[in-house]
Write a structure and sequence with these properties.
The complex is a heterodimer. Chain A is mostly beta strands. Chain A has no helices and eleven strands. In chain A, strand 9 and strand 10 form a beta hairpin. Chain A is globular, with a radius of gyration of 13 Å. Chain B is built from no helices and nine strands. In chain B, a hairpin with a 2-residue loop joins strand 5 and strand 6. Classes of the chains: A mainly beta, B mainly beta.
């Protein structure tokens, strides 16, 4: 069965960077896009971008351009999302989500990133 | 890219139907048949309920249906059940391989 297992919660200071991982299993890792979606406390879902594990190509939402980097390591079926220059409004649960078509089929459990001085 | 507009809340009694709208523009909802809907319980990851406007993944009850007219997509939940009480989000492809979510709707079963 498809599983996406994310790294644990993080606490960061403003201006720092955070790198969240998402380990995939149960399917052909290189065959499907991996997206990142975040959700601030009490707020809605926000699409951040995707990485294609086969080619490493990426696409980011304009809002995060220059601050986000999505990468992958095919040897361990893991994708990463790094967000830099953190601000308090980056406090959110970050999800990875695998897509086989224009929909998000499977989701990770989420990683809470807290930005606080 | 602005978020798609959804009503903040919707409600219905058990057995009734509720319809949630999702309004975008011709650059997203109106331009592509790639609207999907997600159900989310508090503290849980979202789950896809509808994709490509009106298709249901296997395992999703046929009480859930989707449609689109112009720049507005809709999700209808028929025969409401207590377990349908959750937050619902639409999402649309918006060209150039980017996506945008709706603002979210909290569905309450009275």
């Amino acid at each position: 069965q498809v599983q996406l297992v994310q790294s644990g919660a993080e606490v960061k200071k403003p201006g720092a960077s955070v790198k969240v991982s998402c380990k995939a299993s149960g399917y052909t890792f290189t065959g499907y896009y991996m997206h990142w979606v975040r959700q601030a406390p009490g707020q809605g879902l926000e699409w951040m971008g995707w990485v294609h594990p086969n080619s490493g190509s990426t696409k980011y939402a304009q809002k995060f351009q220059g601050r986000v980097t999505m990468t992958r390591d095919t040897s361990i079926s893991t994708v990463y999302m790094e967000l830099s220059s953190l601000r308090s409004d980056d406090t959110a649960v970050y999800y990875c989500a695998m897509s086989s078509s224009p929909r998000f089929d499977y989701w990770g459990q989420g990683t809470l990133v807290t930005v606080s001085a | 890219q602005s978020a798609l507009t959804q009503p903040p809340s919707a409600s219905g009694s058990p057995g009734q139907s509720v319809t949630i709208s999702c309004t975008g523009t011709s650059s997203d909802v109106g331009g592509y048949n790639y609207v999907s809907w997600y159900q989310q319980y508090p503290g849980k990851a979202p789950k896809v309920m509808i994709y490509e406007v009106s298709k249901r993944p296997s395992g999703v009850p046929d009480r859930f249906s989707g449609s689109k007219s112009g720049n507005t997509a809709s999700l209808t939940v028929s025969g409401l059940q207590a377990e349908d009480e959750a937050d619902y989000y639409c999402c649309s492809h918006a060209g150039s391989d980017i996506y945008v979510f709706g603002t979210g709707t909290k569905v309450t079963v009275l």
